[in-house]
Amino acid sequence: MAQPYVPQEFNKEEEELKCHPSQSGSTATPTLFENMNATKAFSAAFFEDQLFDKEDDLFDEINQQLNQVLINDSQRPSLVSAFQADMSSYLSHEKLTKNSRKMQLEYQNASLKEKEYVFNTFVKDEIENISLDKYKHFLLEKILEVGLPSHKIIILDRLFQSINKLIKDLYACKVIQKGLEVMIQNQSDYPQQLDNYLNFIHSDNSQMRRVYVDKIANQIIQKSLEVLEGNHLLKLLLVLSKYILNNNHEKFELSIDQYGCLIVNKIIDIYPKQFDIQTKSLCNDIITRAIHNSSGLTRRQYANYIIQSILEKGQEIHKRLLMDQYLIQDFMPMSMDKYGSNVAEKVIVYGGSQWRTRLWEQVSISESSFKRLVNDQFANYPIQRLFEYLDQPLRQEYLALLNRLSDNNQLNNHGQIVLKFALANQNVKKYTQKIIQNDKNQQNKNKQKKQNPQSQSSKQNISNNNTQKQLIFENGLKQVQQQQMQQQFQVAMMQQMMYYQQQQQLLFQQMPQLYYQDQTYLNYGTMTQEQQMQIFYWQQQQQQQQQIFNPNMKNGQ
């Protein structure tokens, strides 16, 4: 029995989707997959279909934001692309920096909806990790600066939850400092967050003492000293004062620590800015303690920077107390110390002329003391600086002492260096003084010219008169020369006329019959060739001389 005929299907369902107009050469409308303009709408629709199979509320919320923001707002894709940029570790520093800056710029220029979406999608669950990243932590600082208040509160809370870990990280520490600035500027907006931070910073325990001497974490203390005010600053200073040149049970000292001394320097910086009496007196007490202990601090590796800071940025009353009662008397032994020599140089640089004179009197009290300082491996540096800042008469005494030691062969290698420096500096000093004196003289001359405009105008009138006289003299000289040339021309003409008259008489004597026929007629054809050439030359000379006195004449006209 024959099988029934089954028609063959040429277009199966699985092959139907493969039959795109672009592949078959057809001119039909492109499919949804090939239409790039419809990709966004199709992705949203496809995403919406898949959403019904999900029961996750968070996913549903994100999808709603996607439909409301991404599809309706044309600026959203650039912001999302900025946050989706590749921030892998294998990228170069320039590429990562560029991506980070783009994220900050896009966020700053974004609308409220965009900021809301980006924060919930990319930032909210990654605050700790972002704050620890070398390039992304700038984004958190930007959000704390221009973001929404609700986002700032979330960030500040999350930072405080992990503050013990984040405060010792270089990048997270910067984010915490930015958060502190924001809280201080708007205390009413973040009362709970500010209280949490102040309770942490005012605590007095072993954990905070580790923060004081940590390489990174002590920056938070310095920032707090800089931005806190009133009672908040006073509480922090009371805690710190226990560990700055004070006897305490823990035997913990900040002034001699590598990073703790930076906190003391910050107290010296903020002292002039304080208006509260209690805070100012407490800062003054800490600085005074440092001055009274200057003999020991100047010889410590890190504590000597505290004394240098007082000399550079301290108040005049503190500087005068430090110089008069301690550093001048201790200058020689301090100069021969490895760390004290740095302070001795600052004494010379930032001290006044009266203190330098006193230092020179102490240094030059005897030749042996001066010799010790010059030949010392550390003291020779402040001694060189002293010569550089001394007045000219004292510099002459300094050079005389050096030359005497050099003549007696009492200078070692360090002393020879001091001698060469002094001689070179002396020559440079003379040259610069000469240049300065020349500049002063030039300025005085300019001032005199400005103050005496009448004398300047009279000088100009005299110079104008001289030029006029010179022009008159030159014109007169030209006229005299022209008259002399005219007289010479006339004399030459008379000589030529006399010569040709003589020639005519000779011709008449040779041919008398011509003379009797017509006395006015002269047959030049009867002249010799030599006589005709002489007349021709005489006519040419006459024309040339006339052109000299009459330049406008051309060709004898």
TrEMBL record:
GO molecular function, one term: mRNA binding
Pfam family, one: PUF
Repeat (Pumilio) residue spans along the chain: 326-361, 364-400
Span of domain PUM-HD: 58-426
Region (Disordered): 1-28, 438-465
Source superkingdom: Eukaryota
Alphabetic keyword roster: Repeat
Recorded GO CC terms: cytoplasm
Entry-linked InterPro entries: PUM-HD (IPR033133), Pumilio_RNA-bd_rpt (IPR001313)
Biological process annotations from GO: post-transcriptional regulation of gene expression
Name of protein: PUM-HD domain-containing protein
Organism: Paramecium octaurelia
